[in-house]
Amino acid sequence: MKFAKWALATLFSAGLVGQALAVEVAGDYTRPNGDKVKVSVVGGKLYCKIVSGSQPGFEMCHGMNNVGGSVWKGAEMKHPSMPGLMTFNGTVNVSGGGLSIKGCAVGESMCDSESWTRN
C-alpha cells in the first residue's frame, strides 16, 4: 500500500497522471453540416482541419492546449463562415462518441457551439 501511494505521488509530481487520464481526441469527425474534420494532436497541441465539405483545408482549431482530461482551450479558433482574420477563444470537450466545440468573442458574451460525431 505504501508503494502504491508513493508511485501515485511520483506520477502526479511528474505530470504523467494528467496525460494518462486525457481522453483520446485525435480522429475523424463529422460536423452537423456534414463537413468531415480531421482532429490531431501535434506537439501536445490540438488542431482541427476540414478535409471535405464546405471549405476543405480550413483549420478551425489551431494549437489548443489540454487543460485537463478531456478539455482543450485556445485563443486561435476560427469558424468557416466568419472572416479569416477573426479568431475566437475556443473550448473543445471530448466525450466517447464525439466532441463539443465552442468559440466565444468578447469574453463569454458572444458564443456559438456545435457537437461533432466521431466517425
Low-confidence stretches: 3-21
Query: What is the alpha-carbon Rg in Å?
Result: 16 Å
- Taken together, the total number of domains comes to 1
Overall shape: globular
Strand content: over 45%
Tell me about the largest β-sheet.
Answer: 8 strands, antiparallel, barrel
Average pLDDT number: 84
Distance between the termini: 42 Å
SSE ordering: HHEEEEEEEE
How many helices?
A: 2
The CATH architecture assignment turns out to be Beta Barrel
Descriptive report:
This protein is α+β, with helices and mostly antiparallel strands and 119 residues long. It has a single domain (23-118), classed as Lipocalin, CATH 2.40.128. Helix content is 16%, strand content 51%. It contains 2 helices and 8 strands. The N and C termini lie far apart (42 Å).
Describe, in short, the structure shown.
With 119 residues, the chain is of the alpha+beta class.
Give the SSE layout.
Elements: H1 2-14, H2 16-21, E1 27-30, E2 36-42, E3 45-52, E4 59-68, E5 71-77, E6 88-95, E7 98-105, E8 110-118
Antiparallel strand pairs: 1-2, 1-8, 2-3, 3-4, 4-5, 5-6, 6-7, 7-8
Q: What would the keywords be for this entry?
A:
alpha+beta; eight-stranded antiparallel beta barrel; 119 residues; 16% helix; disordered N terminus; globular; Lipocalin; 51% strand; single chain; 2 helices
